[in-house]
Amino acid sequence: MPVDPTCPVCQTAEIICGKWTLLLIRDLAEGHSRFCELERSLQGISPRTLSLRLRALEEEAIVERHTFAEVPPRVEYALTEKGRALLPLIDHMRSYGERWLGGTCANAADEQLPPVAAVA
């Protein structure tokens, strides 16, 4: 699929359309999560894939990694402001799926994302 580097839709799709990426953003909408928590919530994702997705989202400044100087070390991931700006897209996808595809969220936490401030 040819990608137009000047098209904002193509640019956004290039970042978020990787397998698991939108589900990872959805799960991080609830706040800080540790790697093992994300791995549990995304049943079927391999640790390598999760690590690659998190790293790619960090590089795009969508996810930030917090490392705590503890023994054993603790690492948490959270959405940045840029990442939270993607949450309305996920809300719209949920609404579309419910209306047109008959889908429902299996996880009660999926039904309500935290409120998102308007993005200019």
UniProtKB/TrEMBL annotation:
One GO MF term: DNA binding
SUPFAM superfamilies: Winged helix' DNA-binding domain
Domain of life: Bacteria
Annotated HTH hxlR-type domain residues: 7-105
PROSITE patterns per UniProt: HTH_HXLR
Keywords: DNA-binding, Transcription, Transcription regulation
InterPro entries: HTH_HxlR (IPR002577), WH-like_DNA-bd_sf (IPR036388), WH_DNA-bd_sf (IPR036390)
PANTHER family: TRANSCRIPTIONAL REGULATOR, MARR FAMILY, TRANSCRIPTIONAL REGULATORY PROTEIN
Stated name of the protein: Helix-turn-helix transcriptional regulator
Organism from which the protein derives: Baekduia soli
